[in-house]
Specification:
The structure holds three protein chains of three kinds. Chain B is α+β, with helices and mostly antiparallel strands. In chain B, about 30% of the residues lie in helices and about 30% in strands. In chain B, strands 4-5-10-6-7 form a five-stranded antiparallel β-sheet. A four-stranded antiparallel β-sheet of chain B has the order 11-12-13-14. Chain B has a three-stranded parallel β-sheet with strand order 1-3-2, covered by helices on one side. In chain B, α2 (about 35-40) links the parallel β2 (about 25-30) and β3 (about 45-50). Chain C folds into two domains: about 5-80, Roll (Ubiquitin-like (UB roll)), CATH 3.10.20.30; about 90-155, [2Fe-2S]-binding domain (DNA polymerase, domain 1, Orthogonal Bundle). A five-stranded mixed β-sheet of chain C has the order 2-1-5-3-4, covered by helices on one side. In chain C, β3 (about 55) and β4 (about 60) form a beta hairpin. The chains are: A alpha+beta, B alpha+beta, C alpha+beta. Chains in contact: A-B, A-C, B-C. The complex binds FE2/S2 (inorganic) cluster (FES) (2 copies).
């Protein structure tokens, strides 16, 4: 039976879009309060040094300066890294974070002091008056060097702060049985989120003494971090999220929250802090650069027999989410293929480089570049069509992954590749110096957090007396339409007009905590929570209506603010609500959705399920390579993703297109370059992201297996949309020039070298 | 502490006087797309911003005799929209199509781009192959500096402290055709890795006149005199062009930086030069 | 070092005269935002992203690299000049209809660039649209829907 849906699967524009096109949205930096101070952060200009002298007296005395804070002013300056699930024997307890540098600087840009003043100009001037003397100490900037026992240590006595393994079957035997073996080393860049809105927030103390922080964040739960640093009860900190001008993981870790909390707590005044574009460059985490050594074997008829990999992640100077990112990489490292014998060893390594942490794709992207390149190379050796090869090895519903996890949803990879490729149409012709080529890549990407984290999301749904509905959910809206989907779900279930549903979101004081908008979990988790709560409200209404109409609940349906019986009877919804209210059975519900739970990972060898489910998809590209310059032009592009069920088609396409564009940037041009820990690409003139002229018209193809764990069978799409882009492009370039680029981004220079080193 | 003043001269004479008085502490402000960045980056901390945008002596694109005069404060968009250039010297306006992006083109000026003296200034190679003159004005008079002699180092030019660029004079070539090829790291808004301009006069397949200029391969935009010598008088075909273009190596001294290595710059400069010459010869046919 | 100098400034924003007193080096962007024209966004402050795009005497340009004092006496238009809640500008309608935005942070600049384009080229081809918006970075959408929306207005669809 195909159920008719009013809002699910449609192209409903979001309400906030009208405000966005009118310029009415008050983003984080647009907000001001009377008497507000302006903050600036004094940051290190050395990547590895001891602070010999720090003197802020002159800054403090500058007229207009309200306060200058250094490490000694911070109640709890050090905190232990939060890396649930990582084993403890790898020294992670030594890797303490510091809010402000007390003694040792570990990366360029690390925060040393905070200034709040009555104007931006005064704050900037105060920053210049802070005197500092460093003693430089040896640093380590290459993860391979950092792994050596004799290398300088960033924290504790081991730079390897996390390692994970996959062990399945016997790779020795697997390779012995292979008729082809492909061995390669791949490298991926440090990618910057480059959201257009800088990190920003405003803090104040309210009349209950609560520290309020209105900030652009993907995680309102950081109020707990602020409380921990200040040493005050968590109930005394409130984080109110704003509409976010782009996140992609960049606003997932703490950005300005703690600084704002400290300054407001000290001054008892409102404070604003907005990062400059340069500060975004060194004041916030990036995507981990990886070195991936892969060895893959296959039989003559194209069955994968064994895979062995070593994955090294440059995790920067502090731990952050690196162990988790690495866990994602490790689990996803096989690609969406069944391989009987697998041995993977992966390492998160500390260096004196810029911090690295979450970024859309979360470790799934680096490995996709490697596993897809390997598949293409095996196909080439076997002289087999690359899709044929993949078809023989795709995971299926019910197959077991290398971490012994059963795939519980449909795997529409074959369909995805075929649709993406056929969307490219006729192949364009090559000329002498302009070679065209085609390629595709598959990906799998989990949605939802690791199941051992026992992830939950709560939501409250209630009906007003006039029949309109209110949804309360803590989730922030990153522009992906997170709130919009919740509205659609409630409107669908309660038979309401979508305009009659209001979503209150992202406020730790008034909305039930929904968890982060990260890990492609928002729709999956909060969608399910809102669905549960809405269904419960529907139960309350139909139960009451059945009493009032003297019929059984089964015969009732709710539509157009009326409860109908199958026999043709009806009663207005508002009457039922009034009756509920009169009897004290309020039509409201607080529901908590629990993701599938598993036991914590106990060893470095991952041998239990860690994810709820996966999204599978494929991307395909046609490129033209100018062999005289190395310039790559993308002529055609398509991305096909099985998203289970589209809640809002517009939004899904938006994710698919936007994800592909970021992935194209990762594959072709984006590279945050550091030279011995000094960042060189601190603005958008040197850190290049794609412009409208670099991105072709991306064709988005939506497949709906309705087999996901999200509401109505939806899967997640935020992250999966980015994963296969780089390998698809590299495969197309390889088709054009006959050489595989193993170190991305494939800049014109790298492509040029590839063309000419071949000749 | 930054300390800036603003001054808007009412006429040309006042401009020259104030520039004389302020000397190197007076910064001509036209589009601001360079100057405001230097102020924000704090590489300039104090001085007087001399607003030159509305002085008529620095505006306009017109043809006087055989010379096209472009006011220093004309924007790149103004150049792209100029009917005079479209009719008399389309090569130059076409060359400006890949300058930054439309937003910046509405702001950046030809005088500013030249005065900034970036090795990859996109106005420079086309002006160099046109033998353009930078008209420098000061209280003590006017002098013409050949575009090719205008730059003295990265970010440095040969204006004296009391001089400003008033206009750029381009002698309209009697014959020939030109092309400007720019290689950036992405397609929209890119800073050149290297760029090549050529102007060719071709007589029954033989190159009788050639001027070649490059950006991004030396401390300043340069004329490639060795390559010019090699090509002039030659009949070009697929077989000899590579060897001839290789002579460019004697003209360029590229460095390795964020945007490309010296080897890559050398290789693509040669390739771009070949492409530019072949394209020109085709249009000449 | 001495006191900083301030200069009187008077310009017209969205048809309304705005006056103030500014330092020499202040950008038009900072001046506008300080005067509550917060619909003009600061994404990079270096001319690299286009979020701060406004129209100055009809031309779209970045306000972060425009000296406020140079805007003296000029007509400035920001996003707020386009349409209102009850009467969206066709471009605004198209952006909503085609979902030409996600986070919306690039949108104020993008719309002003699109406005300037349509003012001079009412029926632009896709390639001209892509050229026109190439100084306006969008990190969310991949641009396709933005180009679709502008193209639709050019076709007279909205
Ligand atoms: S803020 Fe002006 S271009 Fe980015
Ligand atoms: S919609 Fe987010 S930057 Fe364009």
């Amino acid at each position: 039976m195909t159920e008719e849906r009013t809002y699910i699967g449609k192209r409903t524009p979001g309400l906030d879009e009208k405000d966005k096109v009118l310029g009415n949205v008050i983003y984080a930096d647009d907000f001001t309060l009377p008497g507000m101070l302006h903050a600036k952060v004094f940051r290190a200009t050395k990547p590895s040094a001891i602070i010999k002298k720090l003197n802020a007296d002159r800054a403090r005395k500058l007229p207009g300066v309200a306060c200058v804070l250094t490490a000694g002013d911070v109640p709890n300056n050090e905190s232990i890294s939060n890396v649930v699930g990582q084993t403890t024997e790898v020294g992670l307890l030594e890797a303490r974070h510091q809010v402000l540098v007390k003694n040792r600087v570990r990366y360029y840009g690390e925060a040393i002091a905070l200034v709040a003043a009555d104007s931006v100009a005064a704050a900037e001037e105060a920053i210049e008056l802070i005197e500092i003397e460093y003693e430089e100490i040896p640093g380590v900037y290459n993860p391979l060097e950092a792994m050596k026992p004799e290398s300088p240590k960033i924290h504790g006595d081991n730079n390897i702060i996390a390692q994970w393994k996959l062990r399945k079957g016997d790779v020795k035997r697997g390779f012995a049985e292979s008729s082809v073996i492909v061995e390669n080393t791949y490298r991926t860049p440090r990618q910057e989120h480059a959201h257009i809105e800088p990190e920003s927030g405003v803090s104040w103390v309210d009349d209950m003494g609560v520290i309020n922080i209105r900030i652009a964040t993907q995680v309102i739960e950081h109020y707990r971090d602020v409380a921990a640093v200040l040493g005050i009860p968590q109930s005394m900190v409130r984080i109110k999220g704003t509409i976010i001008g782009g996140g992609f993981g960049g606003k997932e870790d703490v950005t300005a929250e703690v600084f704002l909390g400290l300054l407001t707590w000290k001054t008892r005044k409102p404070v604003k802090l907005t990062f400059s574009r340069e500060e975004m460059g060194y004041g916030r985490q990036k995507r981990h650069p990886y070195i991936l050594k892969y060895k893959t074997g296959a039989s003559k008829d194209g069955k994968l027999t064994a895979m062995e990999a070593e994955i090294i992640s440059d995790s920067g100077a502090y731990v952050y989410l690196s162990p988790w990112v690495l866990l994602y990489s490790t689990v996803h490292s096989t690609g969406p293929y069944f391989i009987p014998n697998v041995k993977v060893d992966s390492f998160s390594v500390l260096t004196n480089n810029i911090m690295t942490s979450a970024f859309r794709g979360f470790g799934g992207m680096q490995v996709a570049f490697a596993y897809e390149a390997q598949m293409d190379e095996i196909a080439k050796k076997l002289k087999m069509d690359p899709l044929e090869l993949r078809k023989k090895n795709f995971l299926k519903k019910g197959s077991e992954t290398a971490n012994y996890q059963k795939i519980t949803s449909e795997v529409l990879l074959k369909e995805s590749v075929e649709k993406a490729l056929s969307a490219l149409g006729e192949k364009s012709k090559s000329t002498e110096t302009k070679k065209t080529g085609r390629g595709f890549a598959c990906s799998w990407q989990s949605y939802g957090r690791m199941t051992y984290l026992h992830d939950t999301s709560s939501a409250w749904v209630g009906l007003e007396l006039d029949g309109s509905a209110v949804v309360r959910s803590g989730i922030p809206d990153l522009g992906g339409g997170q709130r919009e989907s919740l509205r659609a779900i409630t409107a669908e279930i309660l038979g309401l007009n979508i305009e009659e549903v209001h979503v209150i979101s992202t406020d730790s004081q008034v909305t039930p905590l929904a968890g982060t908008v990260t890990a492609t979990r928002a729709l999956f988790m909060s969608g399910n929570a809102v669905k549960l709560a809405s269904e419960h409200v529907l139960d309350i209404i139909t139960k009451k209506a059945s009493e009032m109409l003297n019929t059984s609940v089964k015969e009732l349906s709710l539509k157009n603010k009326t409860v109908y019986t199958t026999g043709g009877g009806s009663i207005p919804l508002v009457k039922v609500i009034k009756q509920c209210a009169a009897e004290g059975t309020m039509p409201q519900s607080l529901a908590t959705y629990k993701a599938p739970f598993t036991d914590p990972v106990k060893t470095e060898v991952i041998k239990d399920p860690v994810f709820a489910d996966f999204t599978f998809g494929a991307q395909a590209a046609e490129v033209e390579v100018d062999t005289e310059t190395g310039i790559v032009t993308i002529l055609k592009y398509a991305s096909a993703q099985d998203i289970g069920r589209a809640i809002n088609v517009n939004r899904v396409e938006g994710q698919i297109e936007g994800g592909a564009a970021q992935g194209i940037g990762f594959g072709l041009m984006e590279d945050y370059i550091e030279e011995k820990g000094i960042p060189l690409t601190l603005n958008l003139a040197t850190y290049l992201i794609p412009t409208s002229k670099d991105i072709p018209d991306i064709q988005s193809i939506i497949l709906e297996s309705k087999s996901g764990k999200g509401p109505f069978g939806a899967k997640g799409i935020g992250e999966p949309a980015i994963t296969a882009a780089a390998p698809a492009l590299i495969s197309a370039i390889c088709d054009a020039i006959g050489v595989r680029i193993k170190h991305i981004p494939a800049t014109p220079e790298r492509v040029y070298r590839a063309v000419h080193d071949k000749n | 502490m930054d300390n800036f003043k603003y001054f808007k001269p009412q006429n040309f004479k006042e401009l020259l006087n104030v520039k004389y008085d302020l000397s190197s502490a007076g910064f001509p402000l036209a589009g601001g797309s360079n100057l405001l960045i230097y102020i924000k980056e704090k590489s300039i901390r104090s001085g007087t911003l001399i607003d030159i945008t509305s002085l008529k002596e620095l505006r306009g694109i017109k043809k006087t005799g055989d010379t096209i005069e472009i006011g220093a404060a004309e924007t790149i968009s103004g150049i792209l929209e100029s009917k005079v250039l479209e009719n008399e010297l389309p090569f130059f306006s076409v060359s400006m199509r890949d300058f930054a992006n439309p937003l910046i083109r509405n702001k950046a000026t030809i005088g500013g781009n030249m005065a900034d003296a970036s090795p990859v200034a996109d106005t420079a190679p086309p002006l160099l192959v046109l033998d353009a003159k930078v008209v420098a004005a000061s209280k003590s008079g006017i002098r013409e500096i050949p575009a090719n002699e205008f730059f003295s180092g990265p970010g440095k030019n040969n204006l004296s402290k009391d001089e400003i660029i008033q206009k750029i004079n381009i002698p309209v070539p009697e014959r020939g055709s030109g092309i400007f090829l720019k290689l950036g790291q992405r397609k929209g808004t890119s800073i050149s890795v290297t760029s090549v301009a050529v102007w060719i006069v071709n007589d029954s397949n033989k190159i009788t006149g050639i001027r070649i200029s490059l950006g991004g391969v030396a401390p300043v935009p340069i004329r490639a005199v060795n390559a010019e010598k090699a090509f002039s008088g030659k009949i070009i075909d697929e077989n000899n062009i590579t060897a001839l273009a290789e002579t460019l190596k004697e003209d360029i001294k590229p460095i390795s930086d964020l945007r490309g290595s010296a080897e890559y710059r050398t290789a693509v400069s040669i390739n771009l030069l070949k492409r530019a010459i072949l394209t020109c010869l085709k249009t000449e046919e | 070092m001495g006191e900083k100098e301030y200069y009187n400034i008077k310009l017209t924003v969205n048809g309304k005269v705005v006056t103030g007193s500014v330092r020499a080096e202040i950008s038009l962007l900072d001046f506008l935002r300080d005067n509550n024209y917060i619909e003009v966004k600061k994404g990079c402050d270096k001319g690299d992203c286009g979020a701060c795009t406004v129209l100055i005497d009809g031309k779209a340009t970045v306000s972060c690299l425009t000296s406020a004092l140079q805007a003296q006496g000029k007509n400035i238009y920001t996003l707020k000049s386009l349409g209102s809640w009850d009467k969206l500008h066709p471009l605004q309608k198209a952006f909503v209809k085609y979902e030409a935005l996600q986070c919306g942070f690039c949108t104020p600049g993008m719309l002003m660039t699109a406005k300037a384009l349509l003012d001079t080229n009412p029926h632009p081809a896709r390639e001209s649209i892509k050229e026109a918006i190439s100084g306006n970075l969008c990190r969310c959408t991949g641009y396709r829907k933005i180009v679709d929306a502008i193209e639709a207005v050019g076709r007279g669809e909205l």
